[in-house]
Amino acid sequence: MAFLKNVRGIADRLRFIGDERGYYPRRLAVSNHNHQTIEFIQKTQCRFIAEFGIYKGYTSIEFARFLNGRGELHLFDYEDRVNDVSKAIRSAGFNNIKTFGSSYKLLDSYNWCLAEVLNQHPDPIYDYVFLDGAHTWAVDALTTLLVDKLLVVGGYLDFDDYDWTLKGSSLDPKLFPLTRKLYTDRQIAAQQVKMIIDLLVRRDVRYREVVPNKIFQKIA
Ligand SMILES: C[S@@+](CC[C@H](N)C(=O)[O-])C[C@H]1O[C@@H](n2cnc3c(N)ncnc32)[C@H](O)[C@@H]1O
Question: pTM of the predicted model, to two decimals?
Answer without folding.
Answer: 0.89
